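FAQ

Q: What does a record look like?
A: Structure on top, sequence underneath. For example:
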């Protein structure tokens, strides 16, 4: 039986370094390459120790924990106990995530192992198993890429979730209760009154909207071109707001002054005393997670905060 110890050691060094690199990505930390290489080299020493008289200690959970601690210290250093524990726990989560992915894929695509052992793996066991190492060699980069992409998606979902709020808008005897996205890039203002503008999608209730609102939401240019008559009550609330979009230097949208805007976040409830609402017939979110875009100024100086009362 041949044991390609040098190949196994090199693969372990590479994999450990990649695990530390993915840990650094999750923690949003800048780590030098030599530190990652040093951490990977420390982790790969377990392979060397496995063929020495110290193999029992190297395979013991305490021994593995000690090596994990040394790997994390080599890669990220020590800047406090909480800093270190967070690094160590994230490293373990990353390791379990990648290891679980590889294990799941292996059992998902596994075939008759008895037949494979008799035909293709006769007299080949242990460290020198080329089938297992070929699977790891090909599967690890795919699992690493999959894990990295999904972690980024989880972060984006978390950021978006923390930016969502419950919005209630009352406008001409119509009540809207929707989810809103607090968009820090929203710079829509009425140039005259300086009121911030909220974009509200009515795509889900378009058939139940008054014909005037429906027509404006579907075709805002009808107001600008003078097509159609609108009630005096609606015209008194109407504002024409200039805005800029990608590919167009100047564009005009139609906004209205509502009776009330109430925005509830996880911390407080805001009553926007000054604000405008622009209705649109388009979906604002591809997955339907929000139906309006909130101007951040509605939660700042121009808004009155109504502290929620906790009931225990």
């Amino acid at each position: 039986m041949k044991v390609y110890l040098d190949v196994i050691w090199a693969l372990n060094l590479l994999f450990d370094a990649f695990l530390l690199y993915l840990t650094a990505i999750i923690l949003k930390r800048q780590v030098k390459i030599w530190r990652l290489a040093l951490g990977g080299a420390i982790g790969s020493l377990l392979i060397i120790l496995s063929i020495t008289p110290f193999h029992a200690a190297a395979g013991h959970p305490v021994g593995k924990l000690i090596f994990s601690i040394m790997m994390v210290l080599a890669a990220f250093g020590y800047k406090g106990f909480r800093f270190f524990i967070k690094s160590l726990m994230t490293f373990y989560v990353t390791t379990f995530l990648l290891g679980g992915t590889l294990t799941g894929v292996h059992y998902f695509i596994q075939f008759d192992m008895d037949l494979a052992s008799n035909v293709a793996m006769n007299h080949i066991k242990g460290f020198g198993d080329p089938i297992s190492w070929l699977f790891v060699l090909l599967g690890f980069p795919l699992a690493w890429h999959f894990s990295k992409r999904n972690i980024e998606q989880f972060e984006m979902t978390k950021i978006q979730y923390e930016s969502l709020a419950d919005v209630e808008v009352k406008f001409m005897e119509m009540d809207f209760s929707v989810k809103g996205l607090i968009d820090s890039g929203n710079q829509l203002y009425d140039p005259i009154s300086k009121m911030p503008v909220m974009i509200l999608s009515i795509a889900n209730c378009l058939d139940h909207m008054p014909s005037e609102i429906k027509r404006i939401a579907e075709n805002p240019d009808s107001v600008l071109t003078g097509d159609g008559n609108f009630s005096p009550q609606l015209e008194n609330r109407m504002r024409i707001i200039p805005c800029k979009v990608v590919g167009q230097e100047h564009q005009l949208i139609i906004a209205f002054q509502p009776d009330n805007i109430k925005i509830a976040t996880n911390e407080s409830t805001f009553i926007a005393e000054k604000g405008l609402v622009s209705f649109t017939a388009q979906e604002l979110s591809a997955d339907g997670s929000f139906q309006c875009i909130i101007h951040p100024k509605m939660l700042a100086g121009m808004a009155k905060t109504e502290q929620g009362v906790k009931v225990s």
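Q: Is there anything notable about this one?
A: The CA atoms of residues 183 and 311 lie 30 Å apart.
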